[in-house]
Design a protein that fits this description.
It is a single chain. The protein folds into 2 domains: 154 residues, Quinone Oxidoreductase, Chain A, domain 1 (Alpha-Beta Complex); 125 residues, Rossmann fold (3-Layer(aba) Sandwich). It contains 11 helices and 15 strands. The strands form 3 sheets. Strands 3, 4, 5, 6, 7, 14 and 15 form a 7-stranded mixed beta sheet that branches. A 6-stranded parallel beta sheet has the order 10-9-8-11-12-13, sandwiched between helices. Helix 3 packs across helix 4 and helix 3 crosses helix 10. It is globular and about 60 Å long. The termini are close together. The structure holds NADPH dihydro-nicotinamide-adenine-dinucleotide phosphate. NADPH dihydro-nicotinamide-adenine-dinucleotide phosphate (NDP) binds next to helix 1, helix 3, helix 4 and helix 11.
Length: 322
Protein backbone atom coordinates (compact mmCIF):
# COMPACT_ATOMS: atom_id res chain seq x y z
CA UNK A 1 0.00 0.00 0.00
CA UNK A 2 1.01 3.64 -0.35
CA UNK A 3 1.87 5.84 2.62
CA UNK A 4 3.65 9.10 3.41
CA UNK A 5 6.75 8.96 5.63
CA UNK A 6 9.72 11.13 6.58
CA UNK A 7 13.13 9.92 7.71
CA UNK A 8 14.63 13.28 8.76
CA UNK A 9 13.11 16.43 10.25
CA UNK A 10 12.74 19.45 8.00
CA UNK A 11 10.40 21.32 5.69
CA UNK A 12 7.48 19.84 3.73
CA UNK A 13 9.96 18.42 1.19
CA UNK A 14 10.97 15.65 3.64
CA UNK A 15 7.53 14.04 3.19
CA UNK A 16 7.88 11.10 0.80
CA UNK A 17 5.37 8.79 -0.85
CA UNK A 18 6.51 5.22 -0.14
CA UNK A 19 5.29 1.69 -0.83
CA UNK A 20 4.99 -0.32 2.41
CA UNK A 21 3.48 -3.67 3.49
CA UNK A 22 -0.20 -3.68 4.39
CA UNK A 23 -0.77 -3.66 8.18
CA UNK A 24 -2.23 -6.64 10.03
CA UNK A 25 -4.48 -6.46 13.09
CA UNK A 26 -2.60 -7.36 16.26
CA UNK A 27 -4.38 -8.15 19.55
CA UNK A 28 -6.72 -5.27 20.45
CA UNK A 29 -6.30 -3.64 17.02
CA UNK A 30 -8.44 -3.04 13.96
CA UNK A 31 -7.17 -2.47 10.43
CA UNK A 32 -9.00 0.46 8.86
CA UNK A 33 -9.22 1.15 5.11
CA UNK A 34 -8.78 4.90 5.22
CA UNK A 35 -11.32 7.21 3.60
CA UNK A 36 -9.84 10.50 4.85
CA UNK A 37 -6.83 11.49 6.93
CA UNK A 38 -7.12 14.79 8.78
CA UNK A 39 -4.32 17.31 8.39
CA UNK A 40 -3.48 19.04 11.66
CA UNK A 41 -0.95 21.62 12.71
CA UNK A 42 0.63 19.05 15.03
CA UNK A 43 1.69 17.11 11.90
CA UNK A 44 3.96 20.05 11.01
CA UNK A 45 5.48 20.05 14.53
CA UNK A 46 6.26 16.32 14.16
CA UNK A 47 7.76 16.90 10.70
CA UNK A 48 9.84 19.96 11.68
CA UNK A 49 11.10 18.45 14.93
CA UNK A 50 9.42 21.00 17.25
CA UNK A 51 7.90 17.95 18.95
CA UNK A 52 10.19 14.93 19.46
CA UNK A 53 9.38 11.90 17.30
CA UNK A 54 11.08 8.62 16.46
CA UNK A 55 12.33 8.49 12.86
CA UNK A 56 11.35 7.32 10.35
CA UNK A 57 7.79 8.43 11.03
CA UNK A 58 4.50 7.97 9.22
CA UNK A 59 2.57 11.14 10.16
CA UNK A 60 -1.13 11.73 10.67
CA UNK A 61 -2.99 11.49 13.98
CA UNK A 62 -6.56 11.47 12.71
CA UNK A 63 -8.63 9.57 10.19
CA UNK A 64 -11.80 7.81 9.21
CA UNK A 65 -12.65 4.73 7.19
CA UNK A 66 -14.07 1.22 7.21
CA UNK A 67 -12.90 -1.59 9.49
CA UNK A 68 -11.38 -4.31 7.27
CA UNK A 69 -10.08 -6.72 9.94
CA UNK A 70 -9.95 -7.07 13.70
CA UNK A 71 -7.44 -8.78 15.96
CA UNK A 72 -8.00 -10.91 19.04
CA UNK A 73 -9.91 -9.40 21.98
CA UNK A 74 -11.54 -6.59 19.98
CA UNK A 75 -15.03 -5.80 21.25
CA UNK A 76 -15.41 -2.12 20.39
CA UNK A 77 -15.84 -2.45 16.60
CA UNK A 78 -16.60 -5.09 13.95
CA UNK A 79 -15.57 -5.64 10.34
CA UNK A 80 -17.53 -3.28 8.08
CA UNK A 81 -18.06 -0.58 10.74
CA UNK A 82 -17.62 3.06 9.73
CA UNK A 83 -15.13 4.48 12.23
CA UNK A 84 -12.99 7.53 13.02
CA UNK A 85 -10.19 8.34 15.45
CA UNK A 86 -7.82 10.96 16.79
CA UNK A 87 -4.54 10.18 18.47
CA UNK A 88 -2.98 7.01 17.09
CA UNK A 89 -0.41 7.86 14.42
CA UNK A 90 0.08 6.82 10.82
CA UNK A 91 -3.10 8.00 9.10
CA UNK A 92 -1.23 9.37 6.05
CA UNK A 93 -1.71 5.98 4.35
CA UNK A 94 -4.20 3.77 2.56
CA UNK A 95 -4.65 1.60 5.67
CA UNK A 96 -3.76 1.80 9.36
CA UNK A 97 -3.78 -0.62 12.30
CA UNK A 98 -5.41 1.30 15.16
CA UNK A 99 -6.06 0.36 18.79
CA UNK A 100 -9.75 -0.54 18.76
CA UNK A 101 -10.37 1.28 22.05
CA UNK A 102 -9.45 4.54 20.32
CA UNK A 103 -11.97 4.08 17.49
CA UNK A 104 -15.46 5.53 17.57
CA UNK A 105 -18.32 4.38 15.36
CA UNK A 106 -19.58 7.05 12.96
CA UNK A 107 -23.39 7.35 12.81
CA UNK A 108 -25.09 7.06 9.41
CA UNK A 109 -26.09 10.73 9.50
CA UNK A 110 -22.42 11.79 9.43
CA UNK A 111 -20.21 11.31 6.36
CA UNK A 112 -16.79 9.75 6.76
CA UNK A 113 -14.98 12.85 5.57
CA UNK A 114 -16.91 15.08 7.98
CA UNK A 115 -16.09 12.61 10.77
CA UNK A 116 -12.38 12.78 9.98
CA UNK A 117 -12.69 16.56 9.99
CA UNK A 118 -13.94 16.83 13.58
CA UNK A 119 -12.16 14.15 15.55
CA UNK A 120 -9.08 16.14 16.54
CA UNK A 121 -10.01 19.77 16.03
CA UNK A 122 -13.65 19.24 17.06
CA UNK A 123 -12.88 17.34 20.25
CA UNK A 124 -10.29 20.02 21.03
CA UNK A 125 -12.90 22.74 20.61
CA UNK A 126 -15.26 20.65 22.76
CA UNK A 127 -12.90 20.28 25.73
CA UNK A 128 -11.72 23.89 25.54
CA UNK A 129 -15.25 25.32 25.67
CA UNK A 130 -16.82 22.78 28.03
CA UNK A 131 -14.00 21.78 30.38
CA UNK A 132 -10.82 23.89 30.26
CA UNK A 133 -13.00 26.92 30.86
CA UNK A 134 -16.68 25.91 30.83
CA UNK A 135 -18.20 28.88 29.04
CA UNK A 136 -21.27 30.39 30.68
CA UNK A 137 -23.85 32.63 28.98
CA UNK A 138 -22.47 36.15 28.72
CA UNK A 139 -18.81 35.15 29.14
CA UNK A 140 -16.59 37.10 26.76
CA UNK A 141 -13.96 34.93 25.08
CA UNK A 142 -11.24 35.52 22.51
CA UNK A 143 -10.39 32.82 19.96
CA UNK A 144 -7.24 33.30 17.90
CA UNK A 145 -7.08 32.00 14.31
CA UNK A 146 -10.88 32.04 14.26
CA UNK A 147 -11.12 30.77 10.67
CA UNK A 148 -8.80 27.82 11.24
CA UNK A 149 -9.75 24.21 11.84
CA UNK A 150 -10.16 24.54 15.59
CA UNK A 151 -11.25 28.17 15.29
CA UNK A 152 -14.40 27.69 13.19
CA UNK A 153 -15.59 24.81 15.38
CA UNK A 154 -14.72 26.48 18.69
CA UNK A 155 -16.55 29.65 17.65
CA UNK A 156 -19.74 27.67 16.98
CA UNK A 157 -19.50 25.71 20.24
CA UNK A 158 -18.81 28.91 22.20
CA UNK A 159 -21.98 30.41 20.71
CA UNK A 160 -23.94 27.26 21.62
CA UNK A 161 -22.76 27.90 25.20
CA UNK A 162 -24.07 31.47 25.04
CA UNK A 163 -20.70 33.26 25.06
CA UNK A 164 -19.84 36.57 23.40
CA UNK A 165 -17.07 35.71 20.96
CA UNK A 166 -14.13 37.78 19.72
CA UNK A 167 -11.99 36.18 17.01
CA UNK A 168 -8.77 37.12 15.23
CA UNK A 169 -8.04 36.17 11.62
CA UNK A 170 -5.35 36.93 9.07
CA UNK A 171 -7.20 38.04 5.92
CA UNK A 172 -10.36 39.70 4.62
CA UNK A 173 -11.69 36.39 3.29
CA UNK A 174 -11.20 34.81 6.72
CA UNK A 175 -13.11 37.71 8.33
CA UNK A 176 -16.20 36.59 6.42
CA UNK A 177 -15.71 32.92 7.30
CA UNK A 178 -15.31 33.67 10.99
CA UNK A 179 -18.36 35.93 11.00
CA UNK A 180 -20.41 33.21 9.27
CA UNK A 181 -19.38 30.78 12.04
CA UNK A 182 -21.02 33.13 14.53
CA UNK A 183 -18.23 35.34 15.85
CA UNK A 184 -19.64 38.56 17.30
CA UNK A 185 -16.46 40.60 16.77
CA UNK A 186 -13.96 39.57 14.07
CA UNK A 187 -10.59 41.33 14.03
CA UNK A 188 -8.05 41.08 11.21
CA UNK A 189 -4.90 41.08 13.35
CA UNK A 190 -2.74 41.82 10.32
CA UNK A 191 -4.49 45.17 9.95
CA UNK A 192 -5.53 46.12 13.49
CA UNK A 193 -4.03 45.78 16.95
CA UNK A 194 -6.36 43.09 18.30
CA UNK A 195 -5.77 44.00 21.94
CA UNK A 196 -6.80 47.62 21.32
CA UNK A 197 -9.99 46.51 19.55
CA UNK A 198 -10.99 43.99 22.24
CA UNK A 199 -10.35 46.54 25.03
CA UNK A 200 -12.33 49.20 23.17
CA UNK A 201 -15.32 47.02 22.27
CA UNK A 202 -15.43 44.70 25.28
CA UNK A 203 -13.96 47.02 27.90
CA UNK A 204 -10.57 46.73 29.61
CA UNK A 205 -9.86 43.38 31.26
CA UNK A 206 -13.19 41.95 30.13
CA UNK A 207 -12.35 38.45 28.88
CA UNK A 208 -13.23 35.35 30.88
CA UNK A 209 -10.92 33.26 28.72
CA UNK A 210 -8.51 33.43 25.79
CA UNK A 211 -8.24 30.32 23.62
CA UNK A 212 -4.88 30.70 21.95
CA UNK A 213 -3.60 28.27 19.33
CA UNK A 214 -1.36 30.91 17.73
CA UNK A 215 1.19 31.26 20.54
CA UNK A 216 4.27 33.48 20.49
CA UNK A 217 2.96 36.40 18.41
CA UNK A 218 -0.20 37.02 20.47
CA UNK A 219 0.43 35.65 23.97
CA UNK A 220 1.48 38.76 25.93
CA UNK A 221 -1.24 41.01 24.50
CA UNK A 222 -3.82 38.29 25.13
CA UNK A 223 -2.88 38.01 28.80
CA UNK A 224 -3.46 41.74 29.25
CA UNK A 225 -7.13 41.40 28.21
CA UNK A 226 -8.26 38.91 30.87
CA UNK A 227 -10.58 39.79 33.72
CA UNK A 228 -9.58 38.99 37.29
CA UNK A 229 -9.20 35.21 37.69
CA UNK A 230 -9.54 34.83 33.92
CA UNK A 231 -8.14 31.80 32.10
CA UNK A 232 -5.37 31.82 29.53
CA UNK A 233 -5.66 28.56 27.60
CA UNK A 234 -2.58 28.41 25.38
CA UNK A 235 -3.11 25.28 23.33
CA UNK A 236 -0.89 25.68 20.28
CA UNK A 237 2.11 27.25 18.60
CA UNK A 238 1.14 28.16 15.03
CA UNK A 239 3.39 31.26 15.19
CA UNK A 240 6.01 29.61 17.45
CA UNK A 241 6.13 28.40 21.06
CA UNK A 242 5.36 30.81 23.91
CA UNK A 243 8.52 31.74 25.88
CA UNK A 244 8.70 31.04 29.63
CA UNK A 245 6.24 33.08 31.75
CA UNK A 246 6.82 34.39 35.27
CA UNK A 247 4.11 33.42 37.78
CA UNK A 248 4.25 37.06 38.92
CA UNK A 249 2.78 38.10 35.56
CA UNK A 250 -0.31 36.04 36.47
CA UNK A 251 -0.55 37.75 39.83
CA UNK A 252 -0.13 41.22 38.31
CA UNK A 253 -2.83 40.42 35.75
CA UNK A 254 -5.39 39.64 38.47
CA UNK A 255 -4.87 36.13 39.86
CA UNK A 256 -4.97 34.66 36.37
CA UNK A 257 -4.96 30.95 35.52
CA UNK A 258 -2.57 29.71 32.85
CA UNK A 259 -3.00 26.25 31.32
CA UNK A 260 -1.32 24.46 28.42
CA UNK A 261 -3.89 21.72 27.67
CA UNK A 262 -3.62 18.91 25.18
CA UNK A 263 -6.46 16.84 23.72
CA UNK A 264 -5.06 13.50 24.72
CA UNK A 265 -5.46 14.34 28.42
CA UNK A 266 -9.13 15.16 27.77
CA UNK A 267 -9.90 11.85 26.00
CA UNK A 268 -7.84 9.75 28.38
CA UNK A 269 -10.71 7.36 29.13
CA UNK A 270 -13.00 5.63 26.62
CA UNK A 271 -16.21 7.08 28.13
CA UNK A 272 -14.76 10.59 27.76
CA UNK A 273 -13.74 9.93 24.15
CA UNK A 274 -17.19 8.53 23.29
CA UNK A 275 -18.99 11.42 25.02
CA UNK A 276 -17.06 14.11 23.13
CA UNK A 277 -17.47 12.34 19.78
CA UNK A 278 -21.19 11.72 20.41
CA UNK A 279 -21.79 15.40 21.23
CA UNK A 280 -20.04 16.48 18.04
CA UNK A 281 -21.78 13.94 15.80
CA UNK A 282 -25.11 14.85 17.41
CA UNK A 283 -24.62 18.57 16.75
CA UNK A 284 -23.59 17.80 13.16
CA UNK A 285 -26.60 15.56 12.54
CA UNK A 286 -28.96 18.28 13.83
CA UNK A 287 -27.27 21.13 11.93
CA UNK A 288 -26.02 22.84 15.08
CA UNK A 289 -22.39 22.41 14.04
CA UNK A 290 -21.25 23.16 10.51
CA UNK A 291 -18.03 21.47 9.41
CA UNK A 292 -16.03 23.35 6.78
CA UNK A 293 -13.67 21.27 4.65
CA UNK A 294 -11.58 23.76 2.69
CA UNK A 295 -9.45 21.28 0.75
CA UNK A 296 -9.52 17.59 -0.12
CA UNK A 297 -6.00 16.79 -1.34
CA UNK A 298 -4.64 13.51 -2.75
CA UNK A 299 -2.45 11.65 -0.24
CA UNK A 300 0.51 11.83 -2.64
CA UNK A 301 0.42 15.65 -2.37
CA UNK A 302 0.91 15.77 1.41
CA UNK A 303 3.93 18.09 1.06
CA UNK A 304 1.85 20.68 -0.81
CA UNK A 305 -0.84 20.38 1.86
CA UNK A 306 1.71 21.14 4.60
CA UNK A 307 2.95 24.16 2.63
CA UNK A 308 -0.58 25.49 2.38
CA UNK A 309 -1.31 24.98 6.10
CA UNK A 310 1.92 26.64 7.23
CA UNK A 311 1.48 29.38 4.61
CA UNK A 312 -1.88 30.32 6.21
CA UNK A 313 -3.65 29.51 2.93
CA UNK A 314 -6.23 27.14 4.41
CA UNK A 315 -9.35 27.62 6.50
CA UNK A 316 -11.41 25.04 8.34
CA UNK A 317 -10.29 21.47 7.66
CA UNK A 318 -7.85 20.02 5.16
CA UNK A 319 -8.20 16.30 4.37
CA UNK A 320 -5.74 13.99 2.65
CA UNK A 321 -7.44 11.25 0.65
CA UNK A 322 -5.72 8.07 -0.54
P1 LIG B 1 -5.39 26.12 11.78
O1 LIG B 1 -6.28 25.62 10.72
O2 LIG B 1 -5.95 27.05 12.81
O3 LIG B 1 -4.12 26.79 11.10
C1 LIG B 1 -3.29 27.61 11.85
C2 LIG B 1 -3.68 29.09 11.69
O4 LIG B 1 -2.90 29.82 12.59
C3 LIG B 1 -3.38 29.64 10.33
O5 LIG B 1 -4.36 29.39 9.36
C4 LIG B 1 -3.27 31.12 10.65
O6 LIG B 1 -4.56 31.73 10.61
C5 LIG B 1 -2.82 31.14 12.13
N1 LIG B 1 -1.44 31.64 12.26
C6 LIG B 1 -1.08 32.73 12.99
N2 LIG B 1 0.22 32.94 12.91
C7 LIG B 1 0.72 31.98 12.09
C8 LIG B 1 2.01 31.69 11.61
N3 LIG B 1 3.10 32.45 11.94
N4 LIG B 1 2.19 30.63 10.78
C9 LIG B 1 1.14 29.86 10.45
N5 LIG B 1 -0.13 30.09 10.88
C10 LIG B 1 -0.34 31.14 11.70
O7 LIG B 1 -4.70 24.88 12.52
P2 LIG B 1 -5.38 23.86 13.53
O8 LIG B 1 -6.81 24.15 13.70
O9 LIG B 1 -4.96 22.50 13.13
O10 LIG B 1 -4.62 24.17 14.88
C11 LIG B 1 -4.69 25.45 15.48
C12 LIG B 1 -3.75 25.46 16.66
O11 LIG B 1 -4.29 24.58 17.65
C13 LIG B 1 -2.36 24.94 16.34
O12 LIG B 1 -1.42 25.67 17.08
C14 LIG B 1 -2.41 23.52 16.84
O13 LIG B 1 -1.15 23.02 17.19
C15 LIG B 1 -3.31 23.67 18.05
N6 LIG B 1 -3.98 22.45 18.48
C16 LIG B 1 -3.80 22.06 19.77
C17 LIG B 1 -4.47 20.99 20.27
C18 LIG B 1 -4.36 20.68 21.72
O14 LIG B 1 -5.12 19.85 22.25
N7 LIG B 1 -3.44 21.30 22.44
C19 LIG B 1 -5.30 20.14 19.41
C20 LIG B 1 -5.51 20.69 18.08
C21 LIG B 1 -4.82 21.79 17.63
P3 LIG B 1 -4.68 33.30 10.22
O15 LIG B 1 -4.20 33.41 8.81
O16 LIG B 1 -6.11 33.58 10.39
O17 LIG B 1 -3.79 34.01 11.19
Amino acid sequence: MRAIEFSSNGGPEVLELVEVPEPTAGPGQAVVHIDSAGLNFIDTYHRSGLYDVTLPMRPGVEGSGIVAAIGDDVTEVAVGDRVAWAGPGGSYAEQAAVSADQLVRVPDAVSLDAAAAVMLQGMTAHYLALDTHPLAPGDKCLIHAGAGGVGLLLTQIAKLQGAEVFTTVGSAAKVELSRAAGSDHVINYNEQNFADVVAEVGGPNSLAVVYDGVGASVFDDSLSLLRKRGVMATFGNASGPVPPVSPLALSAGGSLFLTRPTLFDYIATRPELLKRAADLFGWMATDKLDVTISHRIPLAEAAEAHQMLEGRLTHGKVLLQP
